[in-house]
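fyi for ur records
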Amino acid sequence: MRGIDTGRVSSWLETNIEGAAAPFQFSLIAGGRSNLTYAVTDAAGSRFVLRRPPLGHVLATAHDMAREHRIVSAVGRTNVPVPPVFGLCTDVGVIGATFYVMGLVDGVVLDGPERAAELPLALRPRLAEHLVDVLADLHAADVDQIGLGDLAKRDGYIERQVRRWSTQWDQSKTRELPAIDEVARRLRNDIPVQQSVSIVHGDFRFGNCLADVSTGRINAVLDWELCTLGDPLADVGYLGVYWFGGETETVRTNDPTPAGGFPPYADILERYASRTGRDVDGIAYYIAFGCWRLAVISEGVYSRYLHGAMGDDVGVDMVAFQNATESLAERALSTLTDGP
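which gave:
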């Protein structure tokens, strides 16, 4: 399997993961868009998850597995549900990159309207509320107490992010898009005052959670590669990018909320504000920032696929990523102009 040296990984697993027994079976988990995630099953039927960077050239600041391992381990000491972490391999001789292994958590990834059909209509409000509560708990975590106080700079989050993703755009773009540059200019010129400092997940949405469809609870939050310290409202605004507001042109194909039965985004904001005491009146800026940043990320993924940097087994419509960059940039611009 591309990205996995079965013999070397098997030897490492037996040596470093308690109870793991060869032979191991490996399969690429469908839906990977950046880091590659594999399901691992050992001789006794025990299952694990292995995370490694994408293959080939990647941007220098992305895909740090040791950093992601550190974050998940630290967040695991809070009320936020995450998979248990079992081990980190920094010996690049094993598979050519650093990787880590964590537990396999039961649950359903609600990454589209079709998957929402697995969640009873009556449980959809409950699951949405728990999603907000998990985010509030994440933003309430004491970063010093859990050992993440030095993860990143605490102030100037949006300014740093706009600068970072502008650079990423310059490094990844496959064409010129004036909307990207215009949104970046407007974001730079109207940076809001950062109310507080918290852990920022960076990609918080249903599609990066494992949901218990029998209880309407979040079993685990996944995909921490974009996590940093900064303005918590960035996560709240990003969630708005992935929340259906009734306009079909803004639908994200990996957002389950168009299936119906989920509360409106205004209710999400109200619950978050009630739980945290934060002012969310300026959320339009953060939604626009989330759209713009996601447009840059989509372009980066599209560029990597063009250059063969992802595993062969991940079936993706590359044109969809190309189109997403354009539509997200336009949505960011319209949100800054007209509001959400």
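Strands lie at 25-28, 36-41, 47-52, 85-89, 99-103, 198-200, 209-212, 217-221, 228-230. thats all i got for now
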